[in-house]
Structures are given as structure tokens and as C-alpha cells.
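re: ur question from earlier - yeah i can do the single chain one, its not a big deal. heres the input i used so u can compare w yours
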Amino acid sequence: MPEKILVVDDEQSIVELIKFNLEKEDWQVVTAYDGDEALDVFRREKPDLVLLDIMLPIKDGWQVCKELRETSSVPIIMLTAKGDEPDKIKGLEIGADDYVTKPFSPKELIARVRAALRRASTAAPPSEHVVTLQGLRIDIDRHQVTLDGEPLVLTPKEFDLLLLLVQNKGKVLTRDMLLEKVWGYDYGGETRTVDVHIRRLRQKMGEDPSRPRYIHTVHGVGYKVEEP
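and the output i got, formated as C-alpha cells:
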């Protein structure tokens, strides 16, 4: 079955343009034009990826993203205004996986969607099923993480980032290495993206960066995970 993509934007012309280009790639497309409708369609259609504009009626893209992240780790790509760097960082901080800047080219949009779907479907190596580290349990097959018995709701990239660090326990991984392994060669972002996701991971895990339980910063280099 082809993957299903939810497109959310209040401008019908943009929705139709995106829908046309996605359907050319044989993806299913469902649409919504405001925040409330987006959440309703998401619950009903259970899409594999969400393309989400920021400026929406009723509930803006930030609120929609936050509510989706409360229950789902589905990939979310935000649609942002050109050159709006604060919007991009805020999107990553509240749970978005990537962003596309308006105006965008159809080729870039397709590449970003394809990369996000690929990462979500091939996130874990098949040879390992469960990875544990004193109080932390990562179930790769189910894409679930628990900390001290309590579930953590992580985005696909947060999951991949944590898994990679834990699988390399004790080793320092540079930001460039993490960016390459988690986001891939075709990702057009920068190493600051890694720092944003590490900060989100720490927040969800209740970690104090000055006295980390798991994720340690190696200043000027990158990050590593140590046994508590």
C-alpha cells in the first residue's frame, strides 16, 4: 500500500499544488485547511507523514504539532516562510522532524518527504530487537522507549538519535556524525539541528544538562551516552 500523507494549509492553491506533486509519486493524499480539521483528519485517516503549515486558522501549526506529538511519532514536516530561522528552530523544538521553506520547488518537497518516510521505515537494524541501559529500554521493533518503566513519546529522529547514542555507549559521536547517520547524506540542514534534538531528548528524559544521567556533552566535539 502506498504511504498516506496529510497536507495542511489554509491556501487552497498551495494544497492543490502539493497534492498534485505527491500524487504523481503514487502517494495517497488527504487534506485539511485549519488546525482543528487537521487533528480530526489525522485521527480518522492515520497518515504516515504530515506536511503542516504554520499559519493556520483556529489552531496554528505550532499547536497542531504539539498535540500530535502527545500521542504520535509520525514524521512532521513544517512549511515555513522564507528565511524565517526562528520558526525553523521552534518547529524542531516542539517536535517537527524537518521543514520546507516557501516558496519551495516540487523536487525539494518530494526529496524531503521521501527522505522522512525512508528514515521512519528503516530506522532500526533488524539484528537487534531491544537495547537496554540501566533504567532505559528501547524496543526497536515496536519503536518504543521506556525510562524507569514510564513510556517516552519520541519523534522518529529523537528515537533514532537516542538509539544511535546508546548503541555506541561510551563513544563520542561528533555532531557531523550524528547528522549523517540520523538525517542522512541528503539532509540540507546544519549541525545546530543535532543540538536542538538533544535538548528535546533531555527535556523528555528529565535530564539536567549540568548533571546528565545518560547524555553527556563533549564540548566542542559532540555527545556520548554513559551508563548512569
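Residues 106-121 form the longest helix (16 residues). not sure if urs matches, ping me
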